[in-house]
Amino acid sequence: MEEIVELLNAGQYVKLRQLIAGYNVADIAAYMEKLEQDEVLKLFRILPKSMAADVFSYLEIETEQYIITSLSEKDAANIIDHLMADDATDLLEEMPANVVKRLLAHASADTRRDINHLLRYPEDSAGSIMTVEYVDLKETLTVEQAIARIRKVGVDSETINICYVLDQRRTLVGTVALRYLLLSPPDSVIGEIMNENITLNNSEWCMMEELWQEQPKTLMQLVHKMKEKQGWSKSTTSTVLRRMQEKGCVRYEEGEKARNYFTDLNREEVVLKETRAFLD
Questions:
Q1: Fewer CB in 10 Å around end: N or C, the chain?
Q2: pLDDT at 131
Q3: Which value, in Å, is the radius of gyration of the alpha carbons in the chain?
Q4: Which is nearest to 234 in space by CA: 122, 88, 110?
Q5: In Å, how far are 4, 37, 79 from 19, measured between CA atoms?
Q6: Whole-angstrom Cα distance, residue 277 to residue 142?
Q7: How large is the angle between the packed helices 97-106 and 85-93, nearest 10 degrees?
Q8: The three-state (H, E, C) secondary structure of 203-267, written as one string
Q9: Pairing assessment for the beta strands 217-218 and 259-262 based on DSSP bridges
Q10: 3-class secondary-structure state, position 118
């Protein structure tokens, strides 16, 4: 990695680009965080286009903002176009409204739709806590209609093992497992068969254990911890946090530089509740 700065300072950009292409994107991002701002921007401009967005997604929010505001609006919009929608939203939520407006004006129509979809939801709605790459079902659908919807949109979703059930206000009211749908009568109504007692999945348990060990933690502290322990991307960590906020498992308070995440749940009580739910 030390060779990167040497080549950067020597202006050997072609050789540097060839060298960088062989590195892991997460390692490049971690190294960039150690550089001076002008070096960060210079190095980012040299990155092959095929890996620039991936490297960007592993950077600290502050570094992302510096890069985005330093690039031309067209180049910045291109980076946003290649981010996961929830990653892009996390970044834009922290930026001034006038900057966001200019960036979205240059972004693709699909990117604008997905980001606006997430940004416009109230805090307690499903849209504000979940990635757009998921399957949602209306509670009024029948099982037959739900399966038809899954077949239509599930191919573009991160997961279809668990589907989210939303009410008319698009508030998360329950979940239903795909396996359970397949075993239910076709005319059964989703709102009547869904699981209203939303329990913790394995990913959420990992997050809770991290907060129980020491809290509060910022998003980036959790990102680094979950990448180290679980191999998660920043997008995965952000998505899990949003879902846990909706369940009431996690809350945050605004800090001077970043949000601080807490849990008010007692570990022993949660374990007991999960055990009873399993036995039932």
A1: C
A2: 46
A3: 21
A4: 88
A5: 8, 21, 22
A6: 26
A7: 150
A8: HHHHHHHHHHHCCCEEHHHHHHHHHHHHCCCHHHHHHHHHHHHHHCCCEEEECCCCEEEECCCCH
A9: antiparallel
A10: helix
Strands 259-262 and 251-254: antiparallel
User: How far is Cα 245 from Cα 206, in angstroms, rounded to an integer?
Assistant: 15
- In this structure, which amino acid lies at residue 220? M
Tokens of 193: 């068969």
For the record, the structure tokens of 50 come out as 């095929």
Query: What is the pTM (predicted TM-score) of this model?
Result: 0.43
Dihedral sign of CA atoms 67, 72, 77, 78 in order? negative
What does the alpha-carbon distance between residue 54 and residue 229 come to, in Å, rounded to a whole number? 20
Give the whole-angstrom CA distance, residue 24 versus residue 219.
22
Per-chain mean pLDDT for the chain: 77
Residue 25 has pLDDT above 50, yes or no: yes
Q: Tell me phi and psi for residue 215, to 5 degrees.
A: -145, 155
Burial per residue of 140-162, b for 16 or more beta-carbon CB atoms within 10 angstroms, e otherwise: ebebebbbebbeeeeeeeeebeb
